[in-house]
Amino acid sequence: MFTSALSGASAADRSGNPLPRSATHDRVAAEGDDEKLIRRVAAGDEDAFRALYGRHTGAVYGTLCRLVGRPSDAADLMQEAWLRAVRHLSLFRGQSAFRTWLTGIALNCYREWRRKHSREVLGTDADVRPWQVASGDEIAAINQVLGQLPYEHREAIVLHDIEGFTHEEIAAALEIEPGTSKSRLSRARRAFRERWQGAR
Amino acid sequence: MIDDNLTPLSDGERERLRRARIDLDPPRALEERTIEALRGRGLVRGSRRPFYTAAGIAAAAVIVIAAASSMLMHRAPAAPVAGAPRFMLLLYAGTDPVTGTSDDRRREYADWARDLGSRGVSITGEELTDDIRVLGGGGESGAALPPRGFFIVSAPDLSSAEQLASTCPHLRHGGRILIKRIAG
Fold it and tell me: ipTM score here?
């Protein structure tokens, strides 16, 4: 379903907070390609799962963090996405990259979570923002502003302008019309721009 | 991109947002938690374990043992701000059956508290047993629905405390949480 490139910079963690990843953390370089790992995971190989987890979790978790704001919620969603992915691994046909497939599952989990939290206002308390560790840099500032937006605006910016999904992909993931995605993005950009300029 | 021209981005804005697409490392405990859940469902089985894995499991075992004795996890870096309001989160069983094993739940609660602690929230708490005595009469004894445990957290105000409590895994297990500000 998702065809956009989903790679990104990697990240390292020492305190439990999400941090930009360092190269030393990447422990999966020699673990073989996804296809082999997936076959082994399907056979119940835990080591293969750890390798697959190490290869893809950072990117998908990063997307979830940007969407939901709270790392604890993002971690819950990430776990649920992995459980569903492994349970339904036989359905993965290799027609898309595994990360793309996993991201689709994670967005399904996010959509369900979002329905339950549709009335919730996250606020802007730095204690519950995962990017406080990088306070002062531009990425932290962007995510702070995103955190002030309503969910609909935030997910439009995150999925389209940050993650690079098309409106058709977003529409499929969130079960909305592509036109709705476009109009939300337009409003979201205006809202983001106002807050961004106000914060400068 | 031709479908986003209702409110087009400038080149600078587009580049700035694309730079925000970075991977983030999840909490360290998530990998083990996920593996445990997969094992519990019979989806993976253990084999050889590299050192870092054994160390991780040992650390997790320490957490579980500690949690089993007191459910709680005092998190040192959660240096309370002098005079910061504190709130008691009273954890009650809900109307739905509580899901998961008690050890799983304790671990989840410990992970949650540790996550808050690592982000500067002062948090402590205890699990309560079923042993109970009620003294005195009249008013609300609370004995009909005694709390199962409690946390004490620091937060700027009641709304912030509610926000913190809303992330507590107790809610996912069908429980209820009563939040009260501690006087003083």
Answer: 0.76
